[in-house]
Amino acid sequence: MNLGAIDPFLATHGRVLDRRWLDALLGRGDAAPALRALAGYRNEDGGYGWGLEPDQRSPSSQPIGALHALELLADLGPAGGPAARATCDWLAAVSLPDGGVPFSLAGAAGPGVAAWFAGADVAASSLHLTAAIAEAAHRAARHDAGVREHPWLAGATRFCLQRIADLRDVSQAMTLRYALLLLDALDGDEPAAELRRLAALLPASATVPVAGGAEDEAMRPLDFSPRPGTALRALIDPAAIDADLDRLEGLQRDDGGWPVEWARWSPAGALEWRGVLTVRALRLLVDNGRVDAEALRAG
């Protein structure tokens, strides 16, 4: 790997948000600059839009924007708590009576918006997205009691557990991914039993093709289990994890960044995703012991 090429890549290809996010992850300063950068994507209603999700470029507040916000806020630790609580307030306002959130809300369509956002049913709760958001919120909740005790999170978690019980195969690879991540974040006998049941559906390679995705697009071992030391990681073959870490390391391009492995929907989105994916890749490689954080901090 070429660690020295990463900061130049983000300087020439990345959003300010992603550069500040990496600085916060590496301890190059505090969380305040990343929080200020994130605030630029926030609407007056408390939700997030404006391309925070690079393939959802509508200005309108959307559930996918809340997901990206909570992922960052969870990484920022206690400093992210107030913004994470406010995001839960917004989610409570847009959730459906069953506790879930739709994949998209009204106003999702527009230039540069991926078809799966523009064409989503605004009147039906999505297990895929609700589980993803709830998992990020549970990680943020480790640092903030207000998130942990928020009624939206309790209702969303109940909705997900009820719907997860109906999953019987790996045909919905991304829904399976976020269901497993959520279960891995929860305590209790019921989530633990469901985690074992769903993990048993994975093939030995822990690689599941994404139906309707780009050629070779798949959910892979690190998508299902990004962090070591969890209950789910113990249910995946270590050889599959090691092979996926090798693959991830090998994806770094000559310019220092990581590629987008799915369909592109706009020139800006394709560029911005590379910055996001570069920071995500580095976080995975540091967390899993493949990259020394001090060496990366030094560039």
UniProtKB/TrEMBL annotation:
UniProt cross-references to InterPro entries, sorted A to Z: Terpenoid_cyclase/PrenylTrfase
Matching SUPFAM superfamilies: Terpenoid cyclases/Protein prenyltransferases (SSF48239)
Domain of life: Bacteria
Record protein name field: Uncharacterized protein
Species annotation: Patulibacter medicamentivorans
